[in-house]
Write a structure and sequence with these properties.
- By secondary structure, the protein is an alpha+beta fold.
- Among the domains are: about 80 residues, Copper Amine Oxidase, Chain A, domain 1; about 80 residues.
- The chain contains eight helices and eight strands.
- The chain has a four-stranded antiparallel sheet. Strands 5-6-7-8 form a four-stranded antiparallel sheet.
- Strand 1 and strand 2 form a beta hairpin.
- Helix 1 packs across helix 3 and helix 4 runs antiparallel to helix 5.
- The longest helix has about 80 residues.
- One of its GO terms (cellular component) is nucleus.
- Belongs to the CENP-O/MCM21 family.
- It holds the Pfam family CENP-O.
- Keywords: Centromere, Chromosome, Coiled coil, Nucleus.
- InterPro entries: CENP-O.
Length: about 300
């Protein structure tokens, strides 16, 4: 009995020591794993800090390069502005160029910024081309006209920049009331308003003239019986389809010389019932609201004219 008891006790001690040893081993492995994880976290943090450092250094170098480029660009732009001829080469600008791609790019950028500033100034003064004349004592203003996206005539007037603004020379058509516009627009205090009003007159005249040109070009059956130089009165002869092929006389009056559409349309014919019909009432309204050549296309499609 005593022998069995000793054996059992030794077995329990062995098992107890084995379990404790295993637990101790697991504890050591857990501690080692924690140390490895700490090392990995520290290494990852260090790599993240290194990456941030490299990004900051790269940003610093980029900012230095931009500052250097902007300094060179400003210097080149200043020289371009001082020449007075922005797109022609000059000795000072050539000295900044070393033939490299960077110098060529800087020159292009300087000219680009100069062009943007010129366009901005052009926009501020209402889109008029302005050139100095007589060594700054005067300016020449160019007013371009256009209709339906097509540029037409350009008119010019030279203004003396003395104590009082005065128009020296111009090629404005004589039927444009230039002197009255100078007085009404008060050119001395608001030249922008004067130029805007003058531009309205010129563009309206160019638009009416272009409509008349397109009418003659597109509608061969429509005869222009009468028109004045300002194109404020137009008399057209229509041929009305039918057995008798009657004619109708259409008079367009443009009382507002700043507009391209007529203010009054009168249609006459021997057949009074025809011109007073609903269809011709529509044609009359169409001519008041639509450019002449476009209205005639519609009238031809509806069969009102041949």
């Amino acid at each position: 009995m005593l022998v069995g008891y000793n054996v059992l006790s030794n077995l329990k001690i062995y098992i107890s020591r084995g379990v404790l040893g295993h637990l101790k081993m697991l504890e050591m492995e857990a501690n080692n794993l924690e140390l490895k994880q700490q090392e990995l976290r520290q290494r990852g943090r260090q790599e993240e800090l290194n990456a941030n450092l490299q990004a900051l250094l790269s940003k610093r170098d980029q900012l230095k390069a931009e500052i250097k480029a902007n300094t060179s660009l400003q210097k080149m732009r200043t020289l371009l502005d001082q020449t007075g001829v922005p797109y022609e080469r000059n000795e000072d600008v050539d000295n900044l160029e070393d033939g490299s791609d960077n110098s060529q790019l800087l020159l292009m950028m300087a000219r680009h910024t100069q062009l943007k500033d010129l366009l901005h100034a052009h926009h501020l003064i209402g889109g008029y081309d302005v050139l100095q004349t007589r060594k700054g004592k005067g300016v020449c203003v160019s007013l371009a006209t256009a209709y339906e996206g097509v540029y037409l005539e350009t008119y010019n007037l030279e203004i003396d920049l003395g104590s009082n603004l005065r128009i020296c020379r111009h090629n404005i058509p004589p039927f444009i009331p230039l002197e009255r516009l100078v007085t009404q627009g008060n050119m001395q205090t608001d030249i922008r308003d004067f130029l805007d009003t003058l531009s309205q007159y010129l563009n309206a005249y160019a638009g009416r003239k272009q409509q008349l040109h397109l009418t003659k070009e597109i509608h061969s059956s429509v005869q222009v019986a009468e028109s004045n130089a300002l194109c404020t009165i137009l008399v057209l002869m229509f041929t009305i389809p039918g057995e008798k092929a009657e004619a109708a006389l259409c008079t367009l009056q443009y009382a507002d010389h700043t507009q391209r559409l007529p203010t009054r349309v009168n249609i006459e014919s021997e057949d009074t019932a025809l011109v007073s019909s609903p269809q011709w009432k529509k044609n009359q309204a169409l001519l008041l609201e639509t450019p002449l050549h476009t209205a005639l296309v519609t009238m031809k499609k509806t069969g009102s004219i041949a």
